[in-house]
Fold this sequence. Notes:
By secondary structure, the chain is mainly beta. It has two helices and 32 strands.
Amino acid sequence: MNRCLIxxxxxxxxxxGYIHAQNPISPMGVYIAxxxxxxxxxxxxYIYGSLDETTERYCSRIYHTLSTDNLxxxxxxxxxFVNGEILYAPDAICKQGKYYLYYDxxxxxxxxxxxxxxxxxxxxxxxxxxxxxxxxxxxxxxxGQAYFFWGQFSAKGAKMNPDLKxxxxxxxxxxxxxxxxxxxxxxxxxxxxxxxxxxxxxxxGRNARPTCIGxxxxxxxLGPYEYKGVIVDNAGCDPQSWNxxxxxxxxxxxxxxxxxxxxxxxxxxxxxCIEPISFNADGTINEVEMTSQGAGAPLNAFSRIDAARxxxxxxxxxxxxxxxxxxxxxxxxxxxxxxxxxxxxxxGQGASRATIKVKSASDGEIILRKDSPTGEIIGQQxxxxxSEWKHYNMRxxxxxxxxxxxxxxxxxxxxxxxxIFSIDWFEFSK
Length: 430
């Protein structure tokens, strides 16, 4: 990303303060990936993650932090940590009022920096001797013993010394979870719930890509771990989606999974998301689907809904920045036959009209369906080519209650391989 644009975003987001968001929880124009969730003594939930700036590479030299006390209003804290090298996925821990930020660089070195604040600035980064792979994770057990986890394809772990900056390599274990036995790709994250330890990671068991957040369970932090399945799968969030990385957390008596979704028809430009999860009596976790509503209620049909909150798309369509506004995102590059979905929208007692803001490069048609990509058609609108954004008011078959909304694009020439239109937002009325 252009450094002037970064500065502009920082100024604008700093002025705006809070971001009212569901999924993604990353604000528009800011691409926070690899989300690690932590709850500190102030009873706020903090998200630590890497920052994508370009479709040319993962991550950047900057970490931002997100915080919330209600899972709806997210505050963006810029420049929690700035480094001279690219920063991969981080983690953070707190001990006796001191906050420790763990980070790694592309060559596999791991470091720790400290701060008196959960949002930094973190300073005085020191190399951790021993580990030589990516994605550090810290877990502190009930007895106060800290553990350090890291690795790719084969997860490693070791006890930490009380300084939280060095490892006791006499306790080192390799193969805690592996690609062969657990579908482990990368992104270690360990928690304890009841008598079980949960190893959370990017799972490569589907789609020949690590699109899932998978997990394994054990009765000891250093294993042995038994593979249990998938918590969430981001396949379908973008035509080029490649990886996932996340965490699970308990916040105000409920449990959530944090993960990311790709944008821009790239493996990069990823955005953090959240979904509620539930546990079975045996401790296993039920798989959940990607949604637009995230941890909150269904989207309100009678308030403006950003098209960039789409959680599923097929074809060429993707989330991308507005060309003329870095703080706005659009759902763009619709070609004939492409579809996208928002899960879920509450139409209340009934909506009979819709307003859609569209920019169209070619003549075409927007088709609205409910519940599925082949579900009942509730509205259709002809779109005319033009260079400016236009508002289209369309009649709907009256729609009540909560539904997934599916949008289909049809070109005047259904065999055309050209982009037809982009959608900025839509809103319904009675």
